[in-house]
Amino acid sequence: MEAKSFIEANKDRFLNELFDLLRIPSVSADPKFAGDVQKTAEFIKDRFAEAGAENIEIVPTNGHPVVYADKIIDESLPTVLVYGHYDVQPADPYELWETEPFEPAVRNNRIYARGASDDKGQAYMHLKAFEAMQTLGQPVNLKFMIEGEEEIGSKHLGEFVKANKERLKADVILISDTGLFSMDCPSICSGLRGLSYLEVEVTGPNRDLHSGQYGGAVANPINVLAEMIASLKDEKGSITVPGFYDNVIEVSKEEREQLNKAPFSLEEYQKDLGIDAVSGEDGYTTIERTGIRPSLDVNGIWGGYIGEGAKTVLPSQAFAKISMRLVPGQKSEEITQLFKKHFESIAPDCVKVKVTPHHGGEASVTNIDSAGFRAASNAFEKVWGKPAIPMREGGSIPIVALFKEELGLNSILMGFGLDEDTIHSPNESYGIDNYLMGIETIIEFHKEFAEMNK
Amino acid sequence: MEAKSFIEANKDRFLNELFDLLRIPSVSADPKFAGDVQKTAEFIKDRFAEAGAENIEIVPTNGHPVVYADKIIDESLPTVLVYGHYDVQPADPYELWETEPFEPAVRNNRIYARGASDDKGQAYMHLKAFEAMQTLGQPVNLKFMIEGEEEIGSKHLGEFVKANKERLKADVILISDTGLFSMDCPSICSGLRGLSYLEVEVTGPNRDLHSGQYGGAVANPINVLAEMIASLKDEKGSITVPGFYDNVIEVSKEEREQLNKAPFSLEEYQKDLGIDAVSGEDGYTTIERTGIRPSLDVNGIWGGYIGEGAKTVLPSQAFAKISMRLVPGQKSEEITQLFKKHFESIAPDCVKVKVTPHHGGEASVTNIDSAGFRAASNAFEKVWGKPAIPMREGGSIPIVALFKEELGLNSILMGFGLDEDTIHSPNESYGIDNYLMGIETIIEFHKEFAEMNK
Q1: Is residue A268 domain-resident?
Q2: What is the domain extent for residue A346?
Q3: CATH number, position B138
Q4: Which of B449, B377, B422 is nearest to B189 (CA)?
Q5: Which of B214, B301, B396 sits opposite A304 (nearest CB)?
Q6: Tell me, what's the pLDDT at B359?
Q7: Could you tell me if B202 and B178 lie in one domain?
Q8: How far apart are alpha carbons A186 and A174 in whole angstroms?
Q9: For residues A180 and A84, what is the distance between their CA atoms, to the nearest angstrom?
Q10: Number of other CB atoms surrounding residue A281 within 10 Å
């Protein structure tokens, strides 16, 4: 039996199971959802059991658990370790969702729900591919590690990996948590940016003050925070933290030309985002700015009176969540320290500043000549009718560097998302075709990978 | 009978009545308290009735109502129009209150509650002074106008005043909504700053984006807002809005020397606020920075993810509430337009900016040789044992300029608050001595004012 027809025959069930998974609000960042995160792990465990996996276990960590499962069919065959995560980003702002974030809705052949694409939908494809292979034949040994803390920096995955090196032994790691350039131009992520995420707190007076009584004489922490943030980039769009670019590995002229060959339309890009102009570091294209250059964004800011109406307050404190995307060569921990040192050093003596590192991760690049990358490319050719092009993505999957370091394994980032999925945003969605073709492509990948290791 | 002994005899009731008034959360800025604002107006009306006032009326406006009352004892006597407001600032952040903001608590001879000082406590002194004078003798004709929208810019008081010029005819206006330099150094406010309050909205992409996928290529509205706010002041602490200072009436060297004679200790000021350094416009002392110079403060800022944990979002929008304190010469409406024009002009083309004026008011100065000012100074000398010094305050009471313009009347700002009242902040309080001595001082003021007009 062909993979395609098996998937077609089970399509409705494959979708309904995903809907049930999406209904559990497994927001790892917010303690009030801790119970749901646990429930989600159990849901994954049960589906693995039904699909015929072995050694299924919900492995506790000091945070949210990791679900492990495997099926070793023949020690002589290659082993593929699949990674995914079952936790999701917070759904705020809720009011911008057209339908409930945790009640999946289907519109124009897309599934709308938080986590539909990132990463419940993409991780669940691997579970269904595994189930299908129990009928169609499983060409390689399979191991699965589905974690629950990816959206909060995989805080405890490192400990898990270090403690389970034997159990995680494999030839390659397969991850679906990235995107395609487009449906017509399938791509495989050949590089990811690292991350350094911090929270800053600026404190002025010991209490909120009346802006009339004190305004003009006492430093306003919001104004000061704004000035400090503004100073983090120069007029060329470069980040001013001393030493920030020191270890950046410059990408060759050739590779930059390669990257810019992707069928990218600035006009469509701006139209899609509703902006009149892009903005970024001088001397780089949009594809390069997100793919091969580091960035700095304020992810959240708050201070003073933010309720309805007006309040003439000079607040005691102002806060911001700031993150930097890093590229190969930059070490997350080192950049975090450079930022902390710099931010503290530029604080005027009329305020006190506190910088709290949240989490980080290293950038990574994949060898596009490796067996895994070629197997993925061939799988796309079979299912999508054309080979996948290599693409540098701006996002971060810190654990890719961790796997390389701890397990010595390369990760193949074979993701099926699209920009229109708007992951991390209200109305996140995932194409039903992406989901079903993704399952098929995964099955083909394992066949291809087995072939190459014959 | 002496005012002092009458007040002493009625002390407990005078306090309990104020506590009842403070229990009603009359937050004018927040629609959900609209019913309480109305209740407060009725409370004031009933107390006036009990005290023997006449022509008592809750006058509706297009916003919150104005409570009017009077007692004309002899057309040949001078008439004092008393102004106050019964609405209060929002109590947020609630968690910083040691005791409930709307359940008054007495600690070390101070009343802790939102509005204890600003302005319920100070306005109610006039009600109790009026009651006392019905026994002690009322030396002047009295009119009262207690409004419910001062904390939101007295939005509809202008219409009320224009429509009631006859009813509001008087010789002077008396207002207690300001502070004393200290208990040992009573002062009368001789000048107030004006206000221009706006809300700004910066919009980048049409939806929240993943900061990894887009960070570095798409302008982040929070970063842009921070840059725009930072650019509003130069390195000298001067405001950069073109034309901002054009009409500022410079204060004479003599008056500046006068102002700086006040027994002000920078060390104590910083200690009280818990700051290591003050900050403001170069070339001016702290007293001058709040008294005679304009200022610009961000009263609130918000955007992106402000919940617990980390969210790697590049938000669609960022917001800020920004207010400017103005000095004589600067017209609120004109400054508002200058700011709007400037803020829109400095917006980079990668974002859209919207500026919404909230409310404003004009600055004012009082002639310290006027009968009213001298009457107030003498009243202080009688009750506090020393005359009051003139002081420029940083706050705004926009209606003072309105009264001058519409009614042709000067306002005497005889307030009894202290910096430690921390009005507009959590744990606002008002000294019981200030409350009781204030009542006595008000009674003496009316005697003095009657004398001067004999």
Answers
A1: no
A2: 194-248+294-359
A3: 3.40.630.10
A4: B377
A5: B301
A6: 82
A7: no
A8: 17
A9: 17
A10: 18
Instruction: Answer whether A205 touches B (CB < 8 Å).
Output: yes
Write the CA distances from B221 to A305, A339, B99, B382, integer angstroms: 19, 21, 38, 58
Contact map slice: B 318-337 vs A, CB within 8 A: 318-321, 323, 325
Average pLDDT over residues B296-311: 94
Q: Which of A226, A312, A422 sits opposite B230 (nearest CB)?
A: A226
Q: What is the signed CA dihedral for B191, B423, A219, A353, rounded to 10 degrees?
A: 180
B58 touching A (Cβ < 8 Å): no
Query: Closest chain A residue to B320 measured between Cα atoms?
Result: A306
Examine the domain organization and report whether A244 and A111 are in the same domain: no
Length of chain A: 454
* Model confidence pTM above 0.95: no
B405 and B386 in a common domain: yes
Please, which pLDDT band fits residue B394 given cuts at 50, 70 and 90?
A: confident
Residues comprising chain B, all counted? 454
Reported as a single tens digit per residue, the pLDDT across B221-262 is 999 999 999 999 999 999 999 999 999 999 889 889 878 888
Q: A206 vs B306: CB contact, 8 Å cut-off? A: no
In sequence order, what are the beta bridge partners of A218?
A215
Q: Do B309 and A90 touch (CB under 8 A)?
A: yes
Packing angle between helix B120-136 and helix B34-51, nearest 10 degrees?
A: 10
Instruction: For residue A205, list chain B residues with Cβ-Cβ distance below 8 A.
Output: 273-275
